[in-house]
Amino acid sequence: MRSFRGILSMLLFLVLCCAQPARAQATRAAASELARRILTFAGSNPAIAFHFTNRSSSGVTQTAALRRELQSELESKGAKFVASGAGAIEVDVTLSQNWRSLLLVARVVRGSVARVVMVAFAPPGSESETSEPVVSLSRHFVWRQRAPFLSFLAWRFATEKSPYLWILEPGRLVLYRREGGEWRASAGAKIPHSEPWPRDVRGSLWVEPAISAPGGVSAPPELRASLPGVTCAMPLAPVSGRLPLTCQTVSAGASSYPLFEGGVVAAMAVLSPGMNFFSSASDRGVAPLSLPPFYSAAFVRDDRSQPVLVAAALDGTTYLYDSSGKTEGEVEGWGSAVAGIESSCGDQWQVLATRPGDWTQNDSLAAYEIADGKAVPTGEPIDFSGPILGLSTAPGGHEASAIVLDLSAGLYEAYSITVTCQR
To answer: Which residue blocks in 348-399 are alpha helix, DSSP H?
Structure first.
């Protein structure tokens, strides 16, 4: 009769023998799926300039095996590997780590168009060989119109059956009510301004929460609007008749716009006079934030739950700042619009960023998390039929609002962007 120790050793051997093929199968499946997604964009039988970078905790042996597996999958599907140069499709693959899973992220550049595709899978040796959740972005159509608009805000009051939709245009604020399945104009108010609007006018519409005052009396929440040289406010309450909007003129260097951390206005950014970018910012305690000029910014939390300010600067680089204002990282390859979302996925905070380009090109939006001073992709981007002209955190901090110019239809569209977890 075999000893207990001998039986235990045999069982351990069998477990290890069975585990290795399963792990290899998971790795092979991830490589095969990424190759499929790369070639869906690159086309059939492409000439590929292939690059591979490891930014995960995987060892040299594991990384080399994964790279060989991916190259083999690409070749078996018709790809040919060539040196970088004219006619070659650039494929930059990065192996990164997000939460407890590995991420194979490929940036594929075909001509002047780039796309990011990715696959998440459990690292070899983990307790579960199933894929970890990744972030999935969804867009929900809200509104479209022929005339440009700068910001929008959807709201539902507990005492009202139909929801509200405010649209901020350069010269007016319009309220729409939902009736019979359609939005119908209900009220409006002009926004006075003494100086001509700049060519690229910026506008923001947001909710200032109720403020508790001594004695238990609270100021009600307000709907606020910021435009160059003008600030407006009105009570956030059901409307009957005219919009009770009050506006005041501010100096050219005092037009301030909110920067959000989730659903909280954490700082105010000051618009550079006559320009479409921000020259400075200060937190709600009026402490200045030392930043170079930037197009947009948002506060999120990193993988250690520490606050990070993400700011898209004029030089094309997005900078990551810690709570003391020190630069802790830089991100290349993003566009000029960023927003933060607090979610139930991953590290619970995601940065949404557009791709680089101009207002004559279709845009895309991708989600990232901040870890060790780096932006880690957490899901595949979603595409739009034109440039994203405006991107901001929606009230509550769990969604984002995007304004898109549909190039084919010539219409300005509003979308709500939500985050879900997928496996």
So the answer is: none
Query: Measured between alpha carbons, how far is 375 from 89 in angstroms, rounded to an integer?
Result: 24
Residues in contact with 65: Cβ distance below 8 Å, sequence separation at least 6, in sequence order: 27
**Domain range enclosing 32:** 4-132
For the segment 369-413, what is each residue's pLDDT rounded down to a tens digit?
998 888 988 888 999 999 999 999 999 899 999 999 999 999 999
**Which of 132, 153, 183 is the C-terminal boundary of a domain?**
132
The helix/strand/coil state of 162 is: coil
d(CA 92, CA 233): 48
How far apart are the C-alpha atoms of 279 and 253, rounded to whole Å?
9
The answer to whether the CB of 276 falls within 8 A of the CB of 198 is: yes
Q: Sorting pLDDT into bands at 50, 70 and 90, what band is 123?
A: low
Q: Are residues 88 and 193 in the same domain?
A: no
What domain count does the chain have?
2
| Pairing assessment for the beta strands 349-354 and 338-342 based on DSSP bridges | antiparallel
Q: Are 207 and 223 in contact, with CB atoms under 8 Å apart?
A: yes
Least Cα distance to 338 among 284, 283, 260, 263 occurs for: 260
CATH number of the CATH domain containing 257? 2.120.10
**Rama region for 144: left / alpha / beta (φ>0; ψ in -120 to 50; rest):** beta
Give the Å distances, CA to CA, from 351 to 70, 107, 298, 300.
29, 18, 8, 7
**Does one domain contain both 368 and 223?**
yes
Helix (H, G, I), strand (E, B) or coil at 16: helix
pLDDT in tens, 253-299: 778 999 999 888 889 999 999 899 999 888 766 667 888 999 999 99
**Are the C-beta atoms of 117 and 37 separated by less than 8 Å?**
yes
Question: Residue 167 — left, alpha, or beta (φ > 0 → left; ψ -120 to 50 → alpha)?
Answer: beta
